[in-house]
Amino acid sequence: MPNWLYKFFGDTIAPLIHKKDGRSYKKPNTFSDTSTPFSPSSFWVRPPEPVVSLSLHIFDPPMLYRPRVFLWLPHFFVTVLHCPKCIAGVLEKNGAVTPRRITDDDDCYYIVTWRYYCRKGCKSTFRGWNKLILNSLPPYLRLAVPAVLSRKGGLSKTVVTQLRVSNQHKMGPSGVQSLLFERHTLRFNTLQLQYAEAVFELVRGHQMEINKSQSTLHSYFATKKLPSFGNFSDQDGYAGFVPSEHYLAEMLNRAIEEEELDANQHTACIAPDQIAIDDSHKVNKHIAKVDGVPVFGALWTCMDSRYIRAQALTLTKAHEERAGLLSGVSNSIELYGYDYPSIAFSDDPAKVPA
Hints:
By secondary structure, the chain is α+β, with helices and mostly antiparallel strands. The protein has helices at 3-18, 29-32, 50-55, 61-65, 131-136, 139-142, 157-168, 172-209, 217-221, 245-258, 260-268, 320-335; strands at 20-21, 24-25, 44-45, 69-72, 92-96, 100-103, 108-117, 125-127, 147-149, 154-156, 275-280, 289-290, 293-294, 298-303, 308-314, 344-346. Among the domains are: 3-157, no CATH class; 268-351, no CATH class.
């Protein structure tokens, strides 16, 4: 992180989460301040509006760089934060965790949380965004987390949704990466333009009202030098960041795998209007090779008109490898009381079992 960001966390965020009421940490003001309708309670600490700062002639680029910060402090919203491993233990706060950068659709924000320690139980340590802790929280509280995290970073749920929809419409992670880069740089360019226009307005007003003999910008800046706004990729300045295509693909796979059981259950509850059976020989050429020879013979897929109902990597073309999967589809149809599909077809009928 650049130095200005360290200073921002030290001067602004640290006092919020370390404020004490006696021996206990006090709930941040952003969680409880409901005194005015235009400043409601929120998990978010938001940066100042650029227009307001610039209108007051505050030309401080790091102030305009400031990211949003999400304060994830779940212990303030439950009576007791129990250890998700030993259940009997009560988690104690064990220091703040390094902020985690999250990529959103047009900028990056940070999540700040505590590290929790089961002192009297299993001696385990958890970060506030640990899956075990999240799964132990009430659902309405768990759903407030705005991101899907990886080991060192994360994506906002908005970006994950973009990945899902783009993948369904053949845009893929590469297209989403280009879209994110476009939107992130557009936001930076907008801030830079606002900064430059505010400086120009100040200079023009200074020329017209104070020293009418000044005719150039250079003569004004000789008396008052304003800081440069910098570049998008300047690691000591704005420090713009867009994840790679590979990272986006990994995060999409992670999000799909986390919801695999729910997706399978949803599909099983839908009546199949038809059955289409097909063998693909493309996927097996890229996985599980021994001495250059693919282990699997084909990827067998059974679909209705919209969803995959069964799928498996098969070693041979024997019907026995498919019979169990077809029986599972049949059992699901009977379990939910649906009629069997009116037609089943394949591009190679001779290989379809009767």
